[in-house]
Specification:
Elements (H helix, E strand, L loop, with lengths): L5 E12 L3 H9 L1 H7 L7 E4 L6 E7 L5 E12 L3 E10 L3 E14 L2 E13 L5 H24 L1
Antiparallel strand pairs: 1-7, 2-3, 3-4, 4-5, 5-6, 6-7
Helix pairs in contact: 2-3
Length: about 150
């Protein structure tokens, strides 16, 4: 029988964006905008129901060619203020993590201070809190690039 383990981890990523909380919120809520920065293609997204109790589900091939799935359940949404969701990820078949994530949007000057906090259970040594934090930081930087591109248009 295979050895099973859980590594618990929590991290926080903070960013300032030169966009209003409403625009940052929209980048999470609109599937066309989210696809530009989140790392999934429109073909990968099988379901996108952005509401409390709604589900987002994507599956496809990652950058290294391994299959992945990302299965989200939205738990709390306050427009322009917060998004809380639970999700699980699988890579190459096995589930690698189960997490709860909270996105906080706070007005700051002419922009938004966004705080992402994730509490995760990383399974069987297939993922780590350090890897997930690195990936989240990369995604939040891509979100910033998308918002900057919108402002320049």
């Amino acid at each position: 029988m295979a050895e099973h383990s859980i590594a618990h981890g929590t991290f926080t990523v903070e960013r300032h964006y030169n966009a209003s909380p409403a625009r940052v919120f929209q980048a999470w809520a609109d599937p066309k905008i989210k696809a530009k920065w989140f790392g999934t293609s429109p073909e990968d997204t099988k379901e996108f129901d952005f509401r409390v109790g709604g589900r987002e589900y994507a599956e496809g091939a990652g950058p290294d060619g391994a299959s992945f799935s990302f299965d989200v359940s939205y738990r709390d949404i306050v427009p322009d203020n917060r998004i809380i969701y639970t999700y699980e990820m699988a890579l190459g078949g096995p589930r690698i993590s189960v997490s709860v994530a909270a996105i906080e949007l706070r007005p700051e000057g002419d922009g938004t201070h966004m705080i992402v906090t994730e509490h995760g259970c990383f399974l069987d040594g297939l993922d780590t809190v350090k890897q997930r934090q690195h990936g989240t930081e990369w995604l939040m930087d891509r979100l910033g690039e998308e918002l900057n591109q919108q402002l320049a248009s």
